[in-house]
Amino acid sequence: NQKKINMEDFDGSVRQIVSNLQDPLNRNKDGWLNRGMVVGSVQSGKTMNYAGVVAQALDAGYQFIVVLGGAGKKLRAQTQARIDEGVLGIDTSGKIPGWIGAGKLKMVDEKTGKKVSHRNIVSLTNSFDDGDFSTNSKKVQNYNIDWNENTQPHLFVMKKNVSILNNFLEWIEKTQREDKSKRAELSLLIIDDECDWGSVDTGSFDDPEEVLDEEYNPSAINECITNILDKFKWKSYL
């Protein structure tokens, strides 16, 4: 059965990637940063692959997952639509009512064998072209984060744009200022799609030691991603 073999290969590939992420339940007091890269050929199913990684990372306990889906608004919206279907199980644009994709699956608790409800994932981005993360969004303005180990999972699909990433960074900083006792007490996974050109530090320097200089300025998007990672105590970057 070719379809079954393909699904087994897909599941095995996803599990291999997730097994190399840091365990989000390892909440040691010193914190950790886990980094890795997955390489795939053009049109080889990369989006489907990392949708699977997102789903399994949520099951593993990651509380914040950020998917950086390209630099253009249409590509980001397409990525969000794929995440809607493969992970969230709902159409975040609201055009299609009810469950879609993964939402139609009958979820069963492996221990009890009973049907369980779908995980309540917070998504503050949607699949409209202008559905990227915005601090002007009423949904964002009216939403507060509980900074604790029981915080429900959050999923964001954003484009690699300095303004958008700074919106997200400022929002995180604002929520942390409001409750300093819970600062950075969440686990974060950033999945950086198409990182071959959009996120690499392209700052120039002649001396390798210069990279350690406090005045060294990495390229803007790279700096935004680094600053976001710095706001969380336990984080993985893929």
Give a written overview of the molecule:
The structure is a single chain. The chain is globular. Helix 1 crosses helix 2, helix 2 packs across helix 3 and helix 5 runs parallel beside helix 6. The model has no long low-confidence stretch (mean pLDDT 84). Strands 1-6-5-2-4-3 form a six-stranded parallel beta sheet, covered by helices on one side. Helix content is 34%, strand content 12%. It has 238 residues and is α/β, with parallel strands linked by helices. The longest helix has 18 residues.
Low-confidence stretches: none
Characterize the overall form: globular
The biggest beta sheet is recorded as: 6 strands, parallel
Alpha-carbon distance between the two ends? 32 Å
Q: Radius of gyration, rounded? A: 18 Å
What's this entry about, in short?
The chain has 238 residues and is an alpha/beta fold. It has six helices and six strands; from the N terminus they run H-E-H-E-H-E-H-E-H-E-H-E.
Give keywords.
238 residues; six-stranded parallel sheet; 6 strands; 34% helix; alpha/beta
Task: Walk me through the topology.
Layout: H1 2-19, E1 32-35, H2 46-60, E2 64-69, H3 73-88, E3 122-123, H4 138-141, E4 154-158, H5 162-178, E5 187-193, H6 220-230, E6 234-237
Parallel strand pairs: 1-6, 2-4, 2-5, 3-4, 5-6
Helix pairs in contact: 1-2, 2-3, 5-6
